[in-house]
Write a structure and sequence with these properties.
Elements (H helix, E strand, L loop, with lengths): L1 H16 L3 H76 L23 H6 L9 H6 L3 H13 L3 H14 L6 H14 L3 H14 L6 H14 L3 H14 L4 H18 L2
Helix pairs in contact: 2-11, 5-6, 6-7, 7-8, 7-9, 8-9, 9-10, 9-11, 10-11
């Protein structure tokens, strides 16, 4: 009897100690959920790693593209600079090679008296007269054409300071002479050749103001623009050169102005 009672007490205690079935099922579900969450987190981490690898590949590809673009840009800049220097050099040679041409002698211009014949030996050994712009000296050489030639020969010889003084003196002697427009133009050229751009611009503007229809007007307006560029007035120079192209289409002055405009624009692009 006692043994039976003890057995019953042991069974009852075991039943009391064991968790209920629904509690066991809940614990198992939690464990399965935790495992699923862990698997999900591992999958998300793998996706994140894949995205990071893709971004790294894209960054590497972009860096290669940037380096290629920088290389291409450097080549284009060098090419533009070479073209600018070549064009600028050709324009400078063109401007420097414009040899002065004497205008034809007008029918009503006074003629110089013929010089007396001299022996050949004396002609080769005689030194030319030295004249440095004194009005009295110029007047003593003869008429207007002779005075003009004295100044012009000095310009052709590259004695620009002397030629400037000679043309100034010529204009004092013959302010309204037949060769006054040409003298104004070459006076401006004398200043331009010595890089005295403000004085050059003044003379070319004087030519345009007094003789707007003269055949030197196109070249005078061109040189106004080039003088402005030499003074650093780039915007004004471009406007003046564009006016030359529009006002004198097809002329040598317009072609030179167009080339100079291209040179200026290329120079601005490579800076």
């Amino acid at each position: 009897m006692r043994i039976g009672i003890k057995l019953m007490l042991v069974v009852a205690a075991a039943l009391v100690a064991a968790p209920p079935a629904h509690a066991q099922r809940q614990s198992l579900a939690d464990r399965v959920g935790a495992l699923e969450q862990q698997m999900y987190n591992n999958s998300a981490n793998q996706d994140l790693l894949n995205q990071i690898n893709q971004l790294r590949q894209q960054v590497t590809s972009l860096q290669a593209s940037i380096e290629q673009l920088q290389h291409d840009n450097a080549q284009l800049k060098q090419s533009a600079q070479d073209q600018y220097l070549d064009l600028d050099s050709r324009l400078n040679r063109l401007e420097g090679s414009n040899a002065p041409v004497l205008p034809p002698v007008p029918a009503n211009a006074p003629q110089a008296a013929p010089a007396p014949a001299k022996p050949a030996a004396a002609a080769t050994s005689e030194r030319p007269p030295s004249i440095h712009g004194d009005p009295g000296s110029l007047a003593a050489t003869g008429d207007e054409r002779t005075a003009y030639n004295v100044a012009f020969d000095s310009l052709k010889a590259g004695k620009y300071d002397d030629s400037a003084q000679l043309f100034l003196s010529f204009l004092q002697l013959y302010p309204n002479g037949v060769y006054a427009p040409n003298a104004l133009y070459w006076l401006g050229e004398s200043y331009y050749a010595t890089r005295n751009f403000p004085m050059a611009e003044t003379q070319f503007r004087e030519l345009l103001s007094r003789y707007p229809t003269h055949d030197k007007a196109a070249g005078g307006l061109l040189k106004v623009g080039l003088s402005q560029y030499g003074e650093g007035k780039v915007d004004q120079a471009q406007q003046t050169l564009e006016t030359v192209v529009a006002q004198y289409p097809g002329s040598d002055a317009a072609r030179t102005a167009q080339d100079r405009l291209q040179s200026i624009r290329l120079g601005q692009q490579i800076r």
